[in-house]
Amino acid sequence: MDSFVVQFWDKILASLRWLSPLELICIVFPKLRTHGWIDVWVFLNLIFSIVALFLASYTHLHILHISCVVYAAIRVLEIVVYQAKIVLFDPYRLPRSTSDYAVRSYRRIVVLALHNYLETILWFAGIYSVFRISFGERAQILSSAVGALYYSIVTMATLGYGEITPTNDWGRIIVIAHLVIAVFMSLIILARFIGFLPTPRTLDETER
Fold first, then answer.
1. CA–CA distance, 57 with 55 (Å, rounded to integer)
2. Is 202 among the domain residues?
3. Do 164 and 139 meet the contact criterion of CB atoms below 8 Å apart?
């Protein structure tokens, strides 16, 4: 029987899925609930995140910046909820006596996770570009797509060079959210790589 904390987070994640654009699309168009459509969705959002980064960096339309930030927040939340569900909850929903749970492909899961990781970097790069005023005197670095992408990668990798630092609470909140998601995504991808590596045969009789 699951513990209270497991049931609590399972319900939270189940509720958050209603904020997912993919979930809403699949409700309206049930036939799109396929592996192929999910692949297309991930790929299209990766392209969109690149476009949004350039729009955030090189346009000055306030409404466009707000739209990019709002969709970036929704999409990153969708990625985190999706990864948490398929790793921590979905495989355990079926009774242990059944063996119906299966993945489409191990390589597909790893590739999709890497897409999600790269997409998260790009979305946060766009957010940093929009909120560059919250990062002090050297914030002009974030005014270019390359500079914003550089800072997002440095933060995602938790390197912390110290070239750019937040100067107000908005900036600090963005960096905190990014760091928490960065650690989570890194652990997820590492776990997937390790989990899908074949176990070599041992010659030690005690280990067989």
1. 5
2. no
3. yes
CA distances from 68 to 41, 107, 124, 131, 146 (A): 17, 31, 10, 12, 17
pLDDT digits (tens, 9 = 90+) for 133-156: 998 877 888 999 999 999 999 999
Distance CA 72, CA 122 (A): 9
Query: How many domains are contained in the chain?
Result: 1
Determine contact, residues 146/168, Cβ cutoff 8 Å. Answer: no
Side chain identity at 57, as an amino acid letter? S
Quote the domain boundaries for residue 120.
4-91+104-196
pLDDT confidence bin for 97, thresholds 50/70/90: very low
Q: For the segment 60-85, what is each residue's pLDDT rounded down to a tens digit? A: 899 999 999 999 999 999 999 888 88
Of the candidates 178, 170, 179, the residue with the CA atom closest to the CA atom of residue 136:
170
Measured distance CA(11)–CA(16) in Å, rounded: 9
Global pTM value: 0.86
Four-point Cα dihedral 52, 53, 57, 61, nearest 10: 10
Q: Is-contact 167 145, C-beta < 8 A?
A: no
